[in-house]
Amino acid sequence: MAGWYVVHHLFVRTPGPPLYQYLTFTQNFWMATTGKFGIALLAIRWSLAVEERFYALRVPLVRFNPSKRLLAIVIGCMLLAPVLRYFLIAKAGQHGMFAAHVLLFTHFDALMRCSPRVDVRTMSPSHVALCASAVPNGGPRRKAHHQC
Fold first, then answer.
1. pLDDT, tens digit (0-9, with 9 covering 90-100), for 49-107
2. How far out from the chain centre does Cα 42 lie?
3. 141 in any annotated domain
């Protein structure tokens, strides 16, 4: 990825997010403020950035909240996402529709639809990172079923 970035800046020289934003999965913020995907070869990474930040946020969110509060958080996020999209598209100016497309919180209704039913304490760390579905204090479960 860094190689494509360097090649792009040596030969193509169109504006794009700084390299550190690609490495930290935060290029979406640059994209949302400029209304551009940036470097064409790395443009698709906006969706990877959304997914990675979601997984980084979801595991601690699920791990450290009791089931009832977690359910309220999930439902709240699912209801908030369309409101945020509406606000960005209708009220946020010239790049609002683009921002609604590339930012994490506007995708919560789709991302939160996975029901968290697997206990993190009984899973391997790699499975937690891949699945990111857990219910704290749920105890051991039979077979891990997750609906993502």
1. 988 888 888 888 888 888 788 888 888 888 999 999 999 998 888 888 889 989 988 98
2. 17
3. no
Q: How far apart are CA 2 and CA 41, in angstroms?
A: 11
In this structure, are residues 135 and 71 in contact, taking their beta carbons and an 8 Å threshold?
A: no
The model carries a pTM of 0.65
In angstroms, the CA 37 to CA 33 distance is 10
> Is residue 137 domain-resident?
no
Report if residue 142 sits inside a domain: no
Q: Given 3-state DSSP classes, what are the helix, strand and coil percentages for the chain, each rounded to the nearest 5? A: 65, 0, 35
Residues in the chain: 148
Q: How many domains does the chain have?
A: 1
Using DSSP's 3-state secondary structure scheme, residue 49 falls into helix
- Domain limits for position 127: 2-131
